[in-house]
């Protein structure tokens, strides 16, 4: 391998830009390290990709993509950001590509992984074109085996798209400022707009864009670049602009007024930045990890990578900022001004220095900006720095080898030792990354530690739903009920649409039983379901199977028998629900009171649709505010029975009120040019007017009684 990074060959960046395409491709295809790099990057990002995370965010964005493709809609927003604004829709349009071919969310994760693999190759191509083969090999292998970027490569999420589109932006900035080629400004501006859609923090990448604009020769910027840039931004933001007008720019108002807390200046941003240079932090590396016994022995790895990045940054700064002014020029004011002008002229004439300056601005300015923050920072905010640190490390290592080669021509041992140490560094990173991939794909973790509620992988969710579907078909049962908690609700809602057997997803604050006319049904419960007490103590259910859930308790499969009939009340509700009875049972820890209701109407499942009931139970003459309990289901079936826990049977209600309403998706209608009707999906949902149920006697409550056991 040969490295061309010395100042006297830096102009080769311009010469190489005019090299025939077939010759450049031939050189790349003839490089053995490209194939090894592709193999390593693909293995670490695609191995057992079917175990990809599939929690609320992943289900939300793929659900929107699949719905938009199925109905031919445009999309105005994606999901909700942590600051409670609706994200722009770029991630949905990206996922519409795999959703157009398959409803299986696996292909959304595959797309994310493939783009991450492409980012590794893009890093190699960028470094090789401008800094030589050795720098390209070292930087790209360090990046390909880094654990934290691999973590974000293995599941679909808005900001994970930055892994590919940020280095693509840097490629175009180098095209203008280093290779001195036209057609770079327009794609760079559009990419900035796209990156902001994936994560708003990417707006700080305007800094390297402005530096490139100043450094690039004027001949590389055409007047139509500005026109195309404006049109490109309008095109990718057009649906979101419609949304902003419809909501009176509420999201913009929220963004401008987000900073309500105290502004902090601390090292949190630097700590997150450094985490990208080492193994995954706790809890991803835990006592169950296959790497746990070896982490102490590998503790040297992160400090070494950090030192290489710092050394690369210092070297890049020295090379980018060095001046050729004479001592006499520095000692006079006129000479100083002349020297500054000469320094600026020399900087713009040196492609090497221009490229290094862009690289430094990309890494330093956003980091300084995030050091002063008034919001809570998260690790994923720092994806936008990738693969910059590894480019700096690779540049430093290659430059050091070049120095050894020039000064120790006859000493092979030094160069061999240098390459051996570099190889061991990459191998150590590969082993750590492989350990994480093995842990994630084989359940060597604690599910409640890996995610907000608890971690769910796609393979186990699909397997549980598939088992429920097969059980219903084998036993000729006509319905499947899924009891979902906060950790599984959105995932189950999407996967229920792929079932052959009609399926109802029920919030685990309550339980649905089949009616007497419907026959038995299958019930699937979430691993951490709160309603196992109702299933085992209240319902006539037999557990017939379990489905594995890596990292935690299993999914449970039951066959539900129809709920028993109840004596008719003398006064009952006439719409939606009919009261059946109150019953107490022991859940293994205490006695619990539950009410039973019969559904009076049917309603189909739909996209982002739920049917909700709020039960208010009051005790006459006590003056106590009625307690309320809510229940949400994805579909209604007349005759089914709804079981709702009501609290302590020692103080049973004497009357009950019920409020019913539905939650539906917000779909914007817009006439383009006044002639083309468009439907735009959003993540926003709205509640229909709440209906207080009326009894036969016209009251908004019904009297109930509970016969205590003697």
TrEMBL record:
<keyword id="KW-1133">Transmembrane helix</keyword>
<feature type="domain" description="Glycosyltransferase RgtA/B/C/D-like">
    <location>
        <begin position="88"/>
        <end position="243"/>
    </location>
</feature>
<dbReference type="Pfam" id="PF13231">
    <property type="entry name" value="PMT_2"/>
</dbReference>
<feature type="transmembrane region" description="Helical">
    <location>
        <begin position="352"/>
        <end position="369"/>
    </location>
</feature>
<keyword id="KW-0472">Membrane</keyword>
<dbReference type="GO" id="GO:0005886">
    <property type="term" value="C:plasma membrane"/>
</dbReference>
<feature type="transmembrane region" description="Helical">
    <location>
        <begin position="106"/>
        <end position="127"/>
    </location>
</feature>
<feature type="transmembrane region" description="Helical">
    <location>
        <begin position="381"/>
        <end position="404"/>
    </location>
</feature>
<feature type="transmembrane region" description="Helical">
    <location>
        <begin position="189"/>
        <end position="215"/>
    </location>
</feature>
<feature type="transmembrane region" description="Helical">
    <location>
        <begin position="221"/>
        <end position="243"/>
    </location>
</feature>
<keyword id="KW-0812">Transmembrane</keyword>
<dbReference type="GO" id="GO:0009103">
    <property type="term" value="P:lipopolysaccharide biosynthetic process"/>
</dbReference>
<feature type="transmembrane region" description="Helical">
    <location>
        <begin position="416"/>
        <end position="438"/>
    </location>
</feature>
<feature type="transmembrane region" description="Helical">
    <location>
        <begin position="300"/>
        <end position="321"/>
    </location>
</feature>
<dbReference type="InterPro" id="IPR050297">
    <property type="entry name" value="LipidA_mod_glycosyltrf_83"/>
</dbReference>
<keyword id="KW-0808">Transferase</keyword>
<feature type="transmembrane region" description="Helical">
    <location>
        <begin position="161"/>
        <end position="177"/>
    </location>
</feature>
<protein>
    <recommendedName>
        <fullName>Glycosyltransferase RgtA/B/C/D-like domain-containing protein</fullName>
    </recommendedName>
</protein>
<keyword id="KW-0328">Glycosyltransferase</keyword>
<feature type="transmembrane region" description="Helical">
    <location>
        <begin position="25"/>
        <end position="47"/>
    </location>
</feature>
<dbReference type="InterPro" id="IPR038731">
    <property type="entry name" value="RgtA/B/C-like"/>
</dbReference>
<dbReference type="GO" id="GO:0016763">
    <property type="term" value="F:pentosyltransferase activity"/>
</dbReference>
<keyword id="KW-1003">Cell membrane</keyword>
<feature type="transmembrane region" description="Helical">
    <location>
        <begin position="134"/>
        <end position="155"/>
    </location>
</feature>
